């Protein structure tokens, strides 16, 4: 028994319908439809179309797997102290996962003057922390004769150290509740 050999090609709306007047004609040298015979023509067209669709489906399954793996790289914890991991193609480092992390420190009684505060990042940076910043929170909106600022002293892959600094004025006033911080790395 001979079998049809399919070729992955798609021809829209062109499956031959055998007519009542068509003679039964199988494969033979000199037969119509490139030697396949008119009776095999619709079967061949459907076999080719099926092979084409199967080939496309295989490509789609592979692409979906790649997209799912890419989406799995986007992870995070949306919380008051949280992080977001973002996969990207860095022009200098190649494929990396960037991390944006944030949080806050609100010590009871407010920030002390000229004091260091340590922050442990919600998730350790796999390679390096590149940048960090902090901003004060002042819900009571009190005004000192001096100015309290918050600076980043140092940061590593696991933690950062921030320091409150009273510039001028009288110490001991605590108008600042705490501070919010942000860190970026990969």
Please tell me the CATH architecture of the largest domain by its name. Answer: Sandwich
The total number of structural domains is 2
Mean pLDDT: 87
What is the rounded Rg? 35 Å
Report on the biggest sheet. 5 strands, antiparallel
CATH class of the largest domain: Mainly Beta
Shape: rod-shaped
Structural class: alpha+beta
Q: At the third CATH level, what is the topology name of the largest domain?
A: Immunoglobulin-like
Element string (H = helix, E = strand): HEEEEEEEE
For the termini, the CA-CA separation is: 63 Å
Count of strand segments: 8
The oligomeric state of the chains shown is single chain
Give the DSSP E fraction (strand runs of 2 or more residues). Answer: 25-35%
- Give, in spatial order, the strands making up the sheet with the most strands: 1-2-3-8-5
Task: Please report the number of helical segments.
Answer: 1
Helix content: 10-25%
What does this structure look like?
The protein is rod-shaped, with a radius of gyration of 35 Å. A 5-stranded antiparallel beta sheet has the order 1-2-3-8-5. The chain is built from 1 helix and 8 strands, in the order αββββββββ. It has one helix at residues 41-72, and strands spanning 75-77, 82-90, 94-105, 116-120, 129-137, 147-155, 159-167, 178-185. It starts with 40 loop residues before the first helix and ends with a strand. It folds into 2 domains: 1-72; 75-185, Sandwich (Immunoglobulin-like), CATH 2.60.40. The mean pLDDT is 87. Strand 1 and strand 2 form a beta hairpin. With 186 residues, it is an alpha+beta fold.
């Amino acid at each position: 028994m001979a079998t049809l050999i399919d070729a992955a090609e798609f021809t829209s709306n062109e499956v031959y319908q055998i007519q009542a007047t068509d003679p039964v004609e199988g494969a033979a040298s000199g037969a119509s439809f490139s030697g396949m015979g008119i009776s095999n023509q619709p079967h061949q067209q459907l076999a080719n179309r099926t092979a084409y669709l199967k080939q496309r489906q295989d490509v789609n399954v592979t692409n979906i797997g790649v997209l799912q793996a890419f989406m799995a790289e986007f992870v995070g914890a949306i919380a008051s102290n949280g992080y977001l991991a973002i996969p990207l193609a860095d022009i200098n480092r190649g494929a990396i996962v960037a991390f944006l992390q944030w949080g806050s420190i609100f010590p009871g009684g407010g920030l002390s003057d000229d004091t260091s505060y340590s922050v442990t990042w919600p998730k350790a940076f796999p390679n390096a922390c590149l940048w960090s910043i902090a901003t004060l929170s002042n819900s009571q909106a009190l005004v000192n004769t001096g100015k309290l600022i918050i600076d980043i002293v140092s940061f590593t892959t696991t933690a950062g150290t921030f320091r409150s600094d009273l510039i001028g004025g009288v110490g001991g006033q605590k108008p600042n509740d705490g501070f919010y911080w942000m860190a970026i790395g990969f």
